[in-house]
UniProtKB/TrEMBL annotation:
The keyword Nuclease does not apply. It comes from the Bacteria. Its main location: membrane. It is found in: Cell membrane. Keywords: Cell membrane, Membrane, Transmembrane, Transmembrane helix, Transport. GO terms for cellular component: plasma membrane. This is Chloramphenicol-sensitive protein RarD.
Length: 299
């Protein structure tokens, strides 16, 4: 259990601190950062697969026709998620990214209801209503729909739903997803470089190396999360997942001086209340199912 919590903390701390990493490249276009992230993620994951003797697992994943379309879908969804996150961080919208990952668990549950036939109790529907009210309050505060938050939550929620259908090893899955968009990323980087539009050419050697480490920054938290998920209950993982957006929120407000007004606080409090209500309800349901010896309840 202690090792599992350690891996979980490492994963969510890394994800929560990612804005610090991407802010380092705020003079670089979001498209180029994404291109480098895809390329270097593939390089790092490919090395891990080769060293671990699992390259054949990646080849076999593509050889099964049932995996190809979901893999392409996952690749497009995670690329969109990465692009919006990087763009938001470097356009002073870190608080909005934290909101996206606070509401993501609720979006995932809603997708489960819609597409997997999962059922919610009355208390959990109440949590959904509170979260919706929170988003509505924040919409009034921003003067527009918080699209960054919603796109991040929806893209990652649907990504998780599709990955659940594939049931592949996390590293094999990430390797496949990066292979799909690797040609596009490589051609894009080549074109902007050859046409003199590259925003990375002025970076020092140190920053170039740091950008190459984006592959490590992408893959290592996934490895840690996979180790945590094997050792911890879903309930514990559920509590730990709120660590990442909390860290990002603190960074956005305390370090980057992004606005956080009373209206923001009201909106976030509604969403936090929804998360607390939903998590406690899910925990109560699981404990009740264990007590009756009928297994673990979903949701």
């Amino acid at each position: 259990m202690n090792a599992g919590i350690g891996y979980g903390l490492l994963a969510y701390l890394a994800w929560g601190l990612l804005p610090l990493f991407w802010k380092t490249f705020n003079s670089v276009s979001s498209g180029e950062i994404l291109g480098h992230r895809v390329v270097w993620s593939f390089v790092f994951v490919a090395l891990l697969l080769l060293i671990g003797g699992r390259w054949k697992a990646l080849k076999s994943a593509f050889s099964e026709r049932k995996n190809v379309l979901p893999m392409v879908g996952c690749s497009l969804l995670i690329s969109l998620n990465w692009l919006i996150f990087i763009w938001a961080v470097n356009h002073d919208r870190v608080v909005e990214t934290s909101l996206g990952y606070y509401i993501n668990p609720l979006i995932s549950v809603l997708l489960g209801v819609c597409f997997l036939g999962e059922r919610l109790r009355a208390v959990q529907w109440m949590a959904m209503a509170l979260a919706t009210a929170g988003v509505a309050v924040l919409t009034l505060s921003y003067g527009s729909v918080p699209w960054v938050s919603l796109v991040l939550a929806l893209s990652f929620g649907v990504y998780g739903l599709v990955k659940k259908k594939m049931q592949l090893d996390p590293m094999v899955s990430l390797g496949g997803e990066t292979i799909v968009v690797l040609p596009v990323a490589a051609v894009y980087l080549l074109v902007v470089g050859m046409t003199g539009q590259s925003t990375t050419s002025s970076l020092s050697a140190g920053y170039q190396l740091l950008l190459a480490l984006s592959g490590v920054a992408t893959a290592m938290p996934l490895l840690w999360f996979a180790q945590a998920a094997q050792r911890l209950s879903l309930t514990t993982v559920g509590f730990l997942q709120y660590l990442a957006p909390t860290i990002s929120l603190i960074l956005g407000v305390a370090l980057y001086d992004e606005p956080f007004t009373t209206v923001h606080l009201i909106g976030f409090c509604l969403i936090w209340s929804a998360l607390l209500l939903f998590t406690l309800s899910s925990l109560k349901g699981r404990l009740a199912m264990r007590a009756t010896g009928t297994g673990v309840q979903k949701g």
